[in-house]
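Researcher: Sequence of TM2 domain-containing protein follows. Predict its structure.
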Amino acid sequence: MSKQALVEQEEAIRLKVRQLSDEQRKHYHRLELKSIKDPDTYAVLNWCFIAGFHHFYLGKFVRGAVNSSLFILGLILLFCVEPPWIGLGIYGLVFLLELPQLLNAQNIIHQYNNQVMQACLTDILNEKS
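Model: Prediction complete. C-alpha cells:
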C-alpha cells in the first residue's frame, strides 16, 4: 500500500473510533496501546540483526524461525566449511531478501498498526452486540 492509502485507511478507522461511546473509546485505546508496534524498533531489529528478530516482533514466528535458521546455518558454514563463501552467500541472500523490509519499514509497521486498530475496533463493536 502507498503511504497515502495507509494514512487514509488510518483516518477512516479513527473516524469510526470517534463515534464510539466514551467507555468504548477508553477500552479501544487500552487495546490499541498494548498491540501497536513501533516502526523504529522494527527498523533497528531489521537493520542490526539479519537473524529475523523483526519478524518475531510482529508475531510472524514462522518467517522469523526461517530467518534465524538461515542465520545459524550461514554462521556454521562460514566457520566450519571451506570455502567460507558459502556461509557469506547465505548471509547475502538473506540480506537481499530482507532489504525491502528494511527500506519499507515505516509502511510495513503502518499497515500492521492499521490492521491492529481495525481488529481492536471490530472487537469493541462485537462486544456491543
